[in-house]
Amino acid sequence: MNRHSIFRVVWWTCNLLLAAALVASAWCGVWEYSVRQYLDGFSDAIVADSATPQQKAEAILDWMRVGPPRMIAPRVAELSSRDPEDTLNYQQLLQVCGTATNAFLNLARSTGVQARRLLLLTPARTAKHVVAEINVDGRWVIVDATYRTFLRDAKGNLLTRQDLQNPQMFAEATAHIPHYVQEYSYENLAHVRVAALPFHGMHIREFLDWILPGWDESLEWGLLLERRSFTCLFLAVVSFFLLLALRGALAWWADHRLMAPRFHLRANLIRATTAFFTTPEIK
User: Fold this and answer.
1) Are 97 and 180 part of one and the same domain?
2) What tens digit of pLDDT does each residue of 197-256 get?
3) Domain limits at 272?
4) What are phi and psi of 160, to 5 degrees?
5) What contacts 113, CB < 8 A, 6 or more positions away?
């Protein structure tokens, strides 16, 4: 095969993948929109629009604590921990820290509350518990969705993760929570546990800390980690733009190096649009 033949195979493969990525982006966009509409309807039945962020979080915790009976799945393994319809409706998932926190975060965000996931880690950087942080008056305070409560000091003040790193404050905050596991302490924390990724041995956290200081907190990772529809949408859109850039590079290579004929999408669209909207001359 000569270079022109190889180019045509690569060119049409790229075009087909680009078209597939465009279709996938549209489909995932509709999926994510439907999930958001579902969450908006769900939260409207629980939370008043005029409530403060703290009141909204309290209303969600009340629903989790004393809401209507939830369904029990005969096969828990078939449920998705990243599908809001599952995490909000099945009793087994609302009893596990990770999925209970996902349910809380999805509802909190749908009401306009700034909320994010926080992992409590062992010294070996494995997750031992998952809680949420919400922004109340400029402070990121802790909500433990598993125990359906804010963490407060003896005076009732809401506590941040920095407050709870004080052993005395931690003991004070958890003393009134029935059956609280004291190992769920706040010495080691992360919003993203990169150790769970297959390439953690490449020191990815150190690399990200070097090129993007504060990336763990400054970027919004929650939806990517907690909602499958948004993850698919993100991957589809990123794939589309990467393939679009690759197509542009291939077009430049064909025009300036190979001098190979190719289908000029923009030029043909302009010609088709001009032909469609131009009034024909009558002689």
Assistant:
1) yes
2) 555 555 676 777 777 777 666 666 767 777 889 989 999 999 999 999 999 998 888 877
3) 1-45+228-277
4) -95, 175
5) 53, 56, 57, 134, 135
Shared domain for 25 and 162, answered yes or no, is no
Please indicate, yes or no, if residue 282 is contained in any of the structural domains.
no
85 with 201, same domain: the answer is yes
Please check whether residues 57 and 95 belong to one and the same domain. yes
For residue range 27-79, list pLDDT tens digits in order: 999 999 999 999 999 999 999 988 999 999 999 999 999 888 888 888 888 88
Same domain, 221 and 233: no
Q: Are residues 254 and 169 in the same domain?
A: no
Lookup result for tokens 């909500």 = 143
Q: Of 147, 145, 173, which is closest to residue 160 (Cα–Cα)?
A: 173
* 91: nearest Cα among 106, 67, 73: 73
Closest CA to 42 of 109, 96, 97: 109
Tokens 């150790």: give the residue. Answer: 195
DSSP string covering 211-257, please?
HSTTHHHHS--HHHHH-HHHHHHHHHHHHHHHHHHHHHHHHHHIIII
Q: pTM of this prediction?
A: 0.79
